[in-house]
Every structure is written in structure tokens, then in C-alpha cells.
Amino acid sequence: MDKIFWQDYKSALFPVPVVVVSVDSLKGPNLITLGWTGILNSDPLMVGISVRPSRYSSELLHQKMVFGLNIPKKSLAFGVDYCGVVSGRNEDKVNTLNWHVFKSNNLGVPLVKEMPINAECEIKQVIPLGSHELFLAEVKGVYVTPEYLDENKINWASLEGLVYTSKSYWIVNESVYKSGQSLQELKK
Ligand SMILES: Cc1cc2nc3c(=O)[nH]c(=O)nc-3n(C[C@H](O)[C@H](O)[C@H](O)COP(=O)(O)O)c2cc1C
């Protein structure tokens, strides 16, 4: 077998999205960068985020049972990284980064204005997995910065969304194939 049995399988699942989750606290909103996340259901729209119980944000998620999911872009890489290496226990990350938050319409969660896409989410279930807890949440509303909308579709190329792998941030900015295109090619 001309394959190498590779131990570093975590970074072989390439790439993972990078999101910044916002949760309210008595001191104001806190932000945490997460890679273990994804869409898990379409109707109702549900997402999952996996958070280590030791994180300050975990405490806040259990208290509030609602959170904001913020999708970053290339130019916000500094702040995204910062929110992933500094704890809100000792820092006001929103203030340090000079980011701005607005309250969502349905759940009143804090969302980061500078992020191109935001979602307000209500936690429905918390599942302990081992090192992390999986928070399953229903999406109750989505917000998009108008400059990234092109005929009512998100212009991913101009957004330059961040993904993460092997201790680096990368961008997604080029579509290379359309879904269903394979069937069209077969029909030719
Ligand atoms: C790119 C990146 C991805 C991360 N993904 C996760 C994750 O999925 N789950 C998690 O619990 N921590 C994750 N972290 C670590 C937290 O973001 C980090 O510990 C943060 O400082 C916790 O903030 P808090 O103490 O204010 O909650 C990630 C960090 C980075 C830089």
C-alpha cells in the first residue's frame, strides 16, 4: 500500500470554518474563536459548536443558552486570532479590538458589526463528548453586511472568508466547480 499511516489526523480534516461566537456576560459581550462548528440541520436550521468546559465562554453559554455566530473575513484575521488566544476572564476583547456589537432582533444576542455574516442562535441541547461539549442550537435570524450581497446572493469571492488548518488561517475566494455540473457534463 503506497500510503503513509498518518497520526496527525485532526489536521487532515482540512479545512475547518473559523467563527467567532459572541455571548453576553454581566461585564458585556465576550468573544471566542471556534473551529469545531458546522451546519447540522436545515429545517429548522441548526448549527453545532463544540466548546471545552474550561473556557470562560462555556460558563456564559450555559448561563444564557443563546449566542451569536459571527463569520469573519480576511481583514479581521488579527482579531479572530486574538479572540482565540486570550480569555474574556481577564480581557474585554470587544473593547481591545475596537469592534462594535449590535443586538439581534429575535434573541437580543450581541453580534459583531464588523463581521460580514452573523446569526442569532438558541441552544436546544448540550451533549458532553469528552474533551468538548457540543451545543446544538437553532438559528433564529441571519444578518449580512450589504456590500457582500450581489443580487441577493452572498459574494463569497469578495468576502474572502477565513478557514483554519495546521495552525494557519486561509481564505476561500474562488469557486472552481458548480454543484450538479458533473451531471450536465455527463449528458453532453
Ligand atoms: C483557530 C482557533 C480555533 C479554536 N477552536 C476552538 C473550538 O472549537 N473549541 C474550543 O473550545 N476552543 C477553541 N479555540 C480556543 C479558544 O478560542 C480560546 O481558548 C479562547 O481564548 C477562549 O476564550 P474565553 O476564555 O474568553 O472563552 C480555538 C482557538 C483558535 C485560535
Q: Name the CATH architecture.
A: Roll
Count up the helices. Answer: 5
The name of the CATH topology is Pnp Oxidase, Chain A
Terminal residue distance = 37 Å
The whole-angstrom Rg is 18 Å
Mean pLDDT: 96
By secondary-structure content and strand pairing, the structural class works out as alpha+beta
Order of helices and strands: EEEEEHEHHEEEEEEHEEH
Q: What small molecules accompany the polymer chains?
A: flavin mononucleotide
With strands numbered from the N-terminus, the spatial order across the biggest sheet is 3-2-6-9-10-5-4
What is the helix fraction of residues, given as a range? 10-25%
Q: What is the general shape?
A: globular
Give your account of this protein's structure.
This protein is an alpha+beta fold and 188 residues long. It has one domain (16-187): Roll (Pnp Oxidase, Chain A), CATH 2.30.110. Helices cover 18% and strands 39% of the residues. It has 5 helices and 14 strands. The protein has helices spanning 56-64, 77-85, 93-97, 156-159, 181-187; strands at residues 16-17, 19-23, 30-34, 37-41, 46-51, 66-71, 101-103, 110-112, 117-128, 133-144, 149-150, 153-154, 161-165, 168-172. The strands form 4 sheets. Strands 3-2-6-9-10-5-4 form a 7-stranded antiparallel beta sheet. It has a 3-stranded antiparallel beta sheet with strand order 1-13-14. A hairpin with a 4-residue loop joins strand 9 and strand 10 (133-144). It is globular, with a radius of gyration of 18 Å. The model has no long low-confidence stretch (mean pLDDT 96).
